[in-house]
Specification:
By secondary structure, this protein is mainly alpha-helical. The chain is 77% helix and 0% strand. It has eight helices and no strands. The protein starts with 9 loop residues before the first helix and ends with a helix.
């Protein structure tokens, strides 16, 4: 997201700020290791923590702005699947599980072959887990596994599916899914 008149993406600025925080923390650790009697790391780490808190606040602000933008798009174009998918991911970060389920389900109903369908199914499965809808979570993982997935993503989905089967007390299927992971 580029702010008018600035010409710089605030998302990129935030990334640079996180790199700065990590670099500062690493520099303090190195300095403390090399000059243990010369450095008082506590106040320096407090300053780095302040930068991290500032970054978290900016990240939250950017996410809220993005949510407002995509909600506006959906008011104007209620069947915009790409906006629904993006908003589903944003609500996932905000832990707004009911909104994740509502938007993700609608997006997949409108576009079952959406390029980000596997990711939406995964997000739905997490939301259903948090909502204690474990049978729905199981179904979401099974739908996700129908997509072509990389080995790592497939392994994660199978492991989570196995955990869901354990919750549902279906141990034979849990073992089968764990073996596939």
């Amino acid at each position: 997201m580029t702010q008018p008149g600035f010409g710089i993406s605030l998302t990129w600025l935030l990334r640079l700020r996180w790199i700065t925080v990590a670099s500062q923390a690493a520099a303090i650790l190195v300095a403390e290791r090399l000059l243990p009697d010369e450095i008082q790391a506590g106040p320096l780490f407090a300053l780095v923590a302040l930068g991290a808190l500032s970054n978290l606040a900016l990240q939250g602000r950017l996410r809220r702005q993005a949510i407002a933008r995509y909600e506006g798009i959906l008011r104007a174009r209620p069947d915009d699947v790409d906006a629904m998918v993006a908003l589903t991911q944003l609500y996932d970060h905000e832990r707004e599980w009911a909104a994740v389920v509502r938007l993700g389900t609608r997006a997949l109903d409108l576009a079952p072959d959406h390029p980000d369908g596997a990711e939406v199914w995964f997000t739905l499965s997490i939301a259903h887990t948090w909502l204690d809808a474990h049978a729905a979570s199981r179904d979401d993982y099974l739908y996700q596994l129908r997509y072509p997935l990389g080995a790592r993503v497939r392994s994660i989905a199978l492991g989570n599916l196995a955990d869901t089967y354990v919750t549902l007390e279906d141990l034979p299927r849990a073992i089968e899914a764990y073996e596939g992971a």
